[in-house]
Amino acid sequence: MFRLEAKVKFEFLTLFVIFLVQFHGVYSQDAKECPTIVKRAQWGASKSTNVTYQIRPVVYVVIHHTATAICSEMPVCKATVKSIQDQHQKMNGWSDIGYNFLIGNGGVVYEGIGWHRVGAHTRGYNSKSLGIAFIGEFTHDLPSARALRAVNKLLECGVSLGELHPDYMLYGARQISATASPGTALYGDLQEWDHYDPSPVV
Fold first, then answer.
1. Taking the CB of residue 1, how many other CB atoms lie within 10 A of it?
2. Model confidence, pTM
3. Over the stretch 134-153, which tens digit does the pLDDT of each residue have?
4. In terms of Cα–Cα distance, which of 161, 110, 172 is closest to 138?
């Protein structure tokens, strides 16, 4: 009887260890798909005055540019993101920075309002889309190769986390609202991306 109980305990422990190894492998694999993201606290974000949550997964992604100076170095990009938040909150009267994420030309992703929160980037689409902004003005030039790789990793990450629908549709902001964003050069490139949709549902 004692040997039987010991055998059962041993088999249970073995299965438990296998489960932990497999779980860690899956978790690590998923984590590898996500880029390094500079969190709000790291760039000195002010507190949001209101939070509205999205229904996951979201179906649309809207690409913007910030129409500010391009930044590559992290300290400069952090200051730029904070400046954008200040403008959105103090001048526009919004509850927080309007974008879900921002990407610097050095290839680093900065958390705006983050995952599963409603932004203020594209009227009519805020509650059902992810707003991603490249920091800079991209009328004549493209973002760096690092920045473009970072947005691809971020989108893959969103799908793997269940935040973004696997069949999401991708738009440039100018397709939906009266704006030059995300810039002529970037918008031209955007039309070659996977998931680009030429006919948004307005």
1. 5
2. 0.83
3. 999 999 999 999 999 999 99
4. 172
In 39-178, which ranges are E strands?
58-65, 101-103, 109-111, 129-134, 164-172
**Residue where the block lists tokens 């929160």:** 117
Whether the Cβ atoms of residue 39 and residue 110 lie closer than 8 Å to each other: no
What DSSP element (H or E) covers 38? strand 37-38
Residue 33: the pLDDT is 77
Residues with Cβ within 8 Å of residue 136, at least 6 apart in sequence: 65, 66, 68, 69, 70, 71, 105, 143
Encode pLDDT of 114-137 as tens digits. Answer: 999 999 999 999 999 999 999 999
Sequence-distant (6+) residues with CB within 8 A of 74 are 38, 104, 106, 108
